Amino acid sequence: MNVSTLLRYCGLLLVGMMAGSSFAFVLGMGPAMEQLSITSYMEFHRSMETPFNIFSPLIYLLAIATLVASLYQLRQSWKSMEFLLIAFALLCVVDELLMTRFGNLPLNHVISQWDLIAPPPDWVEIRSQWLRFMYIRSALLVSGFALLLASTFFMKRSPVSRQDAFAVA
Question: Which residue from 13, 47, 105, 123 lies 20 to 30 Å from 165 (Cα-Cα)?
Answer without folding.
Answer: 13
